[in-house]
Write a structure and sequence with these properties.
There is one protein chain. With 412 residues, the protein is of the alpha/beta class. The protein has three domains: 165 residues, 3-Layer(aba) Sandwich (Rossmann fold); 131 residues, Rossmann fold (3-Layer(aba) Sandwich), CATH 3.40.50; 68 residues. Helices cover 53% and strands 12% of the residues. The chain is built from 14 helices and twelve strands. The protein has a seven-stranded parallel β-sheet with strand order 3-2-1-4-5-6-7, sandwiched between helices. The chain has a five-stranded mixed β-sheet with strand order 9-8-10-11-12, sandwiched between helices. Helix 5 links the parallel strand 8 and strand 9. Helix 1 runs parallel beside helix 2. The longest helix is centred in the last third of the chain and has 76 residues. It is flat, with a radius of gyration of 32 Å.
């Protein structure tokens, strides 16, 4: 199988960037041809090249004609579809909120993949798709990296705020009072060395408890930590064997913000710490959420999609004309929707430039006023000395004569 994977960025080590990296490496390990396309390259692109996976910033530079496009982020996915007009695609969405994630509609996108059951339902409803057109493929963890070699003790000693916006110093200060009375040292990834941040699989086994969500929660659970599902806005408590399936359905993430989320919330959870439950959760994570299983399922979807595309080609008499017309309509609709967003962004840029000029104008006016105030202060200082001299002269009869003479001179 020849696979081209797209992504909005292959720069920083973040969620979807690492998804591309892990899928690409596993597919290549199994003997498939893989390349990645993104309009923004960087550190992750370098990692992929180091793993002998070609990375391009123009889809037509792909070193092979792909059998399938694994699209992530609609701008790059649609660009790849236009570059390869005879190639079918699957579209993989990882979130419902970011604009770049929104799934596009195109006749060659034959299947949609969502990173959890809840998002699969949302995708199905929003696009009016049938149940068999959307597959939930839960987030996974690479067990070759996260080896689960930590056993949480009966009494925890160390905890970490891992991902989900929890590394902010204000968040650490907010939650630390929940841990200190129990003698638990609380760290955050901000306290980690650069090496730790690049290799969390080496850092996580030092901790008994992790507060995390989404992919970070999976990595912590697979490493042997007892995990409290939390981000910077909310927490839903411990991952336990009895709620594992439910939390997996929603990607091990809080569903909504909680204005009352504070140290007392975490303190309540800590009182129910259960090392044995955490060990069972680690086993469940490693059995149900491993990268190898996810890529097995992806390959099934690739093969089904390519087979369906081939059957469509054989079934239609005027296939080329029909396909070209469908592609044209899809591109037209996509650009029509994109135009609104582009206009909004351009309007924001214009407003920003206008505001920037206004700020620069205010800065110049402020500097001018500061200079004028300096001159006035000097004048006031001199005036104050003059007033003091006049008052001294008025206290003596010769001084009063002198002041009278000066006044007549000034009037003449």
């Amino acid at each position: 199988m020849r696979v081209l994977i797209t992504n909005n960025s292959l720069s920083a080590r973040a969620g979807t960037e690492l998804v591309v990296y892990e899928i690409g490496r596993e597919l290549r390990r199994r003997g498939h041809e893989v390349a990645a396309y993104s309009s923004t390259l960087g550190e992750v692109a370098e990692l992929m090249v180091g793993s002998s996976i070609p990375v391009v910033n123009q889809p037509e530079a792909c070193p092979f004609q792909p059998n399938i496009i694994h699209g992530q982020h609609h701008l790059d996915a649609m660009t790849a579809l236009l570059a390869f007009p005879n190639t079918p695609a699957v579209y993989h969405t990882h979130g419902g909120v970011p604009w770049v994630e929104r799934p596009p509609v195109h006749p060659r996108i034959l299947h949609y993949i969502a990173m959890c059951e809840d998002l699969a339902d949302v995708t199905r409803i929003n696009l009016g798709l049938q149940r068999d057109q959307v597959t939930a493929l839960p987030n996974w963890v690479d067990l070759n990296r996260f080896r689960g070699n930590h056993q949480p003790p009966a009494k925890p000693e160390r905890a970490v705020l891992f991902g989900g916006g929890l590394g902010d110093p204000a968040m650490v200060a907010k939650l630390r009072p929940a841990f200190e009375p129990l003698g638990i040292r609380l760290d955050s990834t901000a306290d980690w060395t650069e090496t730790d941040r690049r290799t969390p699989e080496l850092a996580l086994p030092r901790y008994d408890i992790a507060l995390a969500s989404g992919r970070s929660a999976l990595e912590a659970m697979a490493s042997g930590c007892a995990v409290i599902i939390a981000n910077h806005e909310s927490s839903t408590g411990w991952v336990r064997p009895d709620n594992f399936a439910m939390l997996k359905r929603q990607n091990f993430a809080p569903k909504r913000p909680d204005p009352g989320f504070d140290a007392s919330t975490i303190q309540t959870f800590l009182s129910a710490y259960d090392a044995e439950s955490a060990r069972k959760v680690t086993l469940m994570t490693r059995e149900q959420c491993e990268l190898i299983r996810a890529v097995d399922r992806l390959l099934e979807l690739y093969e089904t999609t390519v087979r369906s595309w081939t059957q469509r080609q054989k079934a239609a008499r005027d296939w080329e004309l029909e396909r070209a017309e469908e592609d044209r309509k899809a591109a037209l609709n996509y650009l029509r929707q994109l135009a609104v967003a582009v206009r909004d962004v351009e309007a924001l840029h214009v407003t920003n430039r206008r505001n920037q000029k206004q700020i620069e104008s205010y800065a110049r006016a402020k500097e001018k006023l500061a200079n004028e105030i300096g001159h006035l202060e000097k004048k006031l200082s001199r005036t104050g000395n003059d007033v003091q001299l006049v008052n001294q002269l008025r206290r003596h009869w010769l001084g009063r004569i002198a002041l009278s003479w000066c006044g007549r001179r000034a009037r003449n």
